[in-house]
Amino acid sequence: MAEQPTNEREERIKRLHHIQELGINPYPAVTHRTHTIQQIFEQFEPFVEKQQLFTVTGRLRTLRGHGNLTFAHLQDGSNTIQIALSKKEVGVESYKLFTQSIDMGDFVEVEGMCFTTHKGEKSVMVKKWSLLSKALRPLPDKWHGLQDEEERLRKRYLDILFNPKVRDMIEKRSVFWNAVRDFHQQHGFLEVETPVLENTTGGADARPFVTHHNALDMDVYLRISAGELWQKRLMVAGFDKTFEIGRVFRNEGMSPEHLQDYMQCEAYWAYANYEQMYAFLRDCYRYIAEKTFKTLKFSIRGFEIDFAKEWPLIDYTEEIEKQTGVNIWKASEKEIEDKLRELNVKYEVHNKERLIDSLWKYCRKKIGGPAILINEPKITSPLAKISPTNPQVTERFHFIIAGSEVGQGYSELNDPIDQRSRFEAQQKLRDQGDEEAQMADMDFVEALEYGMPPTAGHGFSDRVFSFLMNKPIRETQIFPLMKPKQ
To answer: In the structure, what pLDDT confidence band is assigned to residue 6 with cuts at 50, 70 and 90?
Structure first.
């Protein structure tokens, strides 16, 4: 193998030019692969007996020469196998070209036969080879990979290449969302796609991203929910069950639980209420956990979680009073603020809705779960139906796991007059500086005036997957957003 000089990239470019001077295309479009490496392992013994020729392709992960014999490890997306090149088998010129012009990290195609070395390693004896792609940069040290966390996320492709756990996480992520899709479809939900660009955002309390639509010459927002108000319009249109899995965008802070760009699932079920929906969603979580991780037991943030156990119902008001002594119905804004300061809870917006929410978030952290939070106040739930037994609370639920909310839903508000009133109240909060209060979507109110049946909805995001992985949500993104290097 060529020596590794100080400026290896320049030397690799020289070897690239040498290959090109010989009339060899270092980046051909066509390959002749007949088997993956995993398929070779699966058929190894019959191939040995038949002296079967085959062609495999992949990246060279190791190279070591022994005079007239060179060993390497070839890796494709399925597995890694040792290959052996001998001057006798491939010819003097071909062997010379390989040893002088090929580097670790290059992609090659080899035609060969199976054999087992004297040390018992299943290998491929190469009969001929060709270059598929010349790598101009050396890979990181194979034993250590990328050590700096920012560099790992910035060069995620290398992190995946060197870290089997990251690759496994990406594969699990795919299984997770496919299981979400399968469960909904098995229960008769129709998958739909709704707009990402909106005139007004709806379906959540969040600060949106704003962009400009040049053709229509107007500002629009990137959606903050997976089509909540659009899917409810589909309930008006006569669909019984719909769901969407798609990207959602929120222009907010970053934390181990929060991102600005992530995947979310939302579903809507006509003629159902929030109790039916939380039972459905609980079963969905069990299904996707089993499909993705082959278990219902997890260790998450110091809590031991068992999805198979009963999920107790927790009353919002009772839990806050139990943990803090504050009755949210009787306490004034000042009294709640005093309690938040006493508990060292940071808060920003000085309205009762946000103060109560800050108090609840303090209490939530102490609940391991899985549990189902119910009876949330009307003032914190502008899209949920009022409870028939208590007009101060709504038919809304949250799933609590390891001290956090990892999914929610409610009996959807379908009274257009009540919805208009709540939107107007939210708009007043926005006018007072609360950028997370919901926008008033009067086109949606008009749709409700044509009649929407009793409907339940739910929504959950990448946060569920990150919790089951017991990792910060940013690490469970395949390519998390990074600031450009200065």
So the answer is: low
